[in-house]
Amino acid sequence: MTVATAPSPSVTGSPAGGPSRRRRVLRWLLPLGPALVLLAIFLAGPILWSVYIAFTNETLTGSASVNSQFVGVANFVKLFGDPNFINSFLLTFIFVIGSAVIGQNTLGLIIALLMRGRGRVTRSVVNGVVIAAWVMPEVVAAACWFSFLAEDGTLNTVLGVSQEWLYTAPMLAVILANVWRGTAFSMLVYSAALSEVPADLVEAAAVDGASPARRLLHITLPLIRRSIMANLMLITLQTLASFGLIYALTGGGPGTASQTTPLYMYEQAFRYFEIGYGSAIALVMLVIGALFSLVYLRLIKTEDA
Amino acid sequence: MTRLAARGAANLSLLVIALAFVGPFLWVVIASVQPEATLAATPTLAFSLDNFTAVLTWETIILPMINSVVISGSTAILTVLVAGLAAYPLSRYQLRYRRHFMLTLLFTTGLPVTAILVPVYAMFFRFNLYGSVPAMVLFLTASSLPFSIWMMKNFMDGVPISLEEAAWVDGAGWVQSLRSVVGPLMAPGISVVAIFVFVGQWGNFFAPFVLLDTPDKQPAAVTIYTFFSQYGQVAYGQLAAFSILYTAPAVILYVAVNKYLAGSFNFAGSVKG
């Protein structure tokens, strides 16, 4: 830790000129330094590296592992003509829309709306079970759903049917599991947003004879629209890259029936050691993530101004 | 009368939702104390802690849990130190590119870490860092930094600068001021960030799964996956016991900071730049 032993700025005080300027720079550079170095080496570095290797035929085995060659856009041409990638892309889209945009978002909003004005016991019980699913590590969440959906597991016992959900409806299974696991986030965001909606505004509309549905649609939702948009962006970003839950629950199967893009990327890069091709997939994911992230930033910036 | 009906309907819906959320937990909790538990949800009256004693061996759970504590703990400590230092000039000085830097950090929090792991893996392989726990901890720290610096800066903004002025008059530099004035005053904020990072890494499965080479380095997140894929069908009771032991620290820590975290959910709508 060089920072701890650095002389304090007041000791090196000197009149205008070189030393003072250097002192001013050091004043912010010393404390920011360690963070900048770590971010540069372990975050910015790998991202730039992935841009480079995505244009090579790098592998970790075979001849290309020793001297990889620049192959131009070959990886991307292969990628957009690869039926497995297109399949994974569509599945990721279904997964994000189904589990995040529709599932977590709507359910989180509904729970937050229902919780307004409920007693403390009700609130803490519902909060407790919803948040417990969220705090739980993803592999444990998968173990929960594995038994819940098993042939003679809890769900089939309750419904009185006999279904091998993970084989007959793997996408439905991972979507439900992810709704269960991620709803807490949306619920917390919406609870915070709803608590800032002025009660008298809603009551005034009620006095004027507006039905609960109209009050929700024309007053409450417009007031929290920015939270809704920001939440949609954040959960989309989280869901897009989701790996552990799907991997532990279905492994992408049966076949490739639930192989979303992160799982396909894993298979290419870490099972077949096609690092160049895997990086091309990673780069596509990064670009999509960056686009959503920019939209999210915009939402916040307009809020600021 | 309609008001009463509405309240009844709301309570009933919440009950249904709560039950639906409890459903997937149910068999894990019951199976962990059932001696012959399988995937079939057929509870018996038998109760035993055999499943817990069966998994409480050095290789199955003790070493992986120690690894988890080491990995998550050192990541949390390192993140708090580095983010705390970085937050100081961002909170205290008028820097020309501060706003750009803060927005870049926020932008980075949106990037999928899963995708970054491919080049990180290639990099680690090339520089002989594959399988190195310290190298992985540095990567995990870097990936936790953007959000942690944000949180730290916001907490630090809450400490009035006037309190530091007294220390400056006494001749203290920023290091001393940060350590003896600002640090202690934002202790709750520091523990929120530390626990947030710790719990996040406690559940992190993908990074150790691809960056570490041998089972004896793996944290519980990976060991439980291996156990799950090997014995999940035959020894479900033991998997359930493992799950409970592994989840408990995360839940306890979350409950500990729950009070402070509640306020930070406004960030989705209104983040100050």
TrEMBL record, chain A:
Biased segments, Polar residues type: 1-13
Keyword terms, alphabetized = Cell membrane, Membrane, Transmembrane, Transmembrane helix, Transport
- Main localization category: membrane
**PROSITE patterns, per the entry:** ABC_TM1 (PS50928)
Which is an annotated Pfam family here? BPD_transp_1
Single GO cellular component term = plasma membrane
Q: Could you give a single Gene Ontology term from the biological process aspect?
A: transmembrane transport
Residue ranges constituting the ABC transmembrane type-1 domain according to the UniProt record: 90-296
List all membrane-crossing ranges: 28-55, 89-114, 126-148, 168-190, 228-249, 275-297
Instruction: Tell me yes or no: is Protease among this UniProt entry's keywords.
Output: no
Reply yes or no: does the keyword Transmembrane helix apply.
yes
InterPro entries, alphabetically? MetI-like, MetI-like_sf
Q: Where is this region: Disordered?
A: 1-20
Cell compartment(s), UniProt: Cell membrane
Q: Give membrane topology per the record.
A: Multi-pass membrane protein
Give the record's family classification.
Belongs to the binding-protein-dependent transport system permease family.
Output this protein's name. Carbohydrate ABC transporter membrane protein 1 (CUT1 family)
Lineage at the top is: Bacteria, Bacillati, Actinomycetota, Actinomycetes, Streptosporangiales
TrEMBL record, chain B:
Question: What protein name applies here?
Answer: Carbohydrate ABC transporter membrane protein 2 (CUT1 family)
Q: How does it sit in the membrane?
A: Multi-pass membrane protein
Q: Does the keyword Transport apply?
A: yes
Q: Which domain of life is it from?
A: Bacteria
Entry-linked PROSITE patterns:
ABC_TM1
What Pfam family does this protein match (any one)? BPD_transp_1
The answer to whether the entry has keyword RNA-binding is no
Extract one GO BP annotation from the record: transmembrane transport
Name the source organism. Answer: Nonomuraea fuscirosea
- GO CC annotations, alphabetized: plasma membrane
The subcellular localization recorded is:
Cell membrane
Concerning its family, UniProt says: Belongs to the binding-protein-dependent transport system permease family.
Q: Which residues cross the membrane?
A: 12-33, 61-88, 100-124, 130-152, 185-203, 235-257
**PANTHER family from the xrefs?**
INNER MEMBRANE ABC TRANSPORTER PERMEASE PROTEIN YCJP (PTHR32243:SF18), MALTOSE TRANSPORT SYSTEM PERMEASE-RELATED (PTHR32243)
Ordered alphabetically, the record's keywords are:
Cell membrane, Membrane, Transmembrane, Transmembrane helix, Transport
Q: Which InterPro entries match?
A: BP-dep_ABC_trans_perm, MetI-like, MetI-like_sf
Question: What lineage is this protein's organism placed in?
Answer: Bacteria, Bacillati, Actinomycetota, Actinomycetes, Streptosporangiales
